[in-house]
Amino acid sequence: MGVKLYTIGELASLTGQSVRRIRFYSDKGLLPPNIRSASNYRLYADADVARLDLIRALRDAGVGLAAIEKLLRSRLSLRDVLRTRLDILETEILAKRRTAAVLRATLRVPDPAANDLRRLWTMSRLSNAQMRTLVETFVDRIAEGAPIDDDWRERMMETSVPDLPDDPTEEQIAAWEEIATLLEDEGFAQELRAETSAFWTDALDPAAYQDASLKTYEVVTRAVDQDLAPDSAEGRAIAQEWLRTSARAMGRTPDRAFIDWHIAQYDKLSGRMGRYRELLAQLRGETVTKAESRAWSWLNDAMKAAVPA
Question: Which residues cross the membrane (predicted)?
Answer without folding.
Answer: none
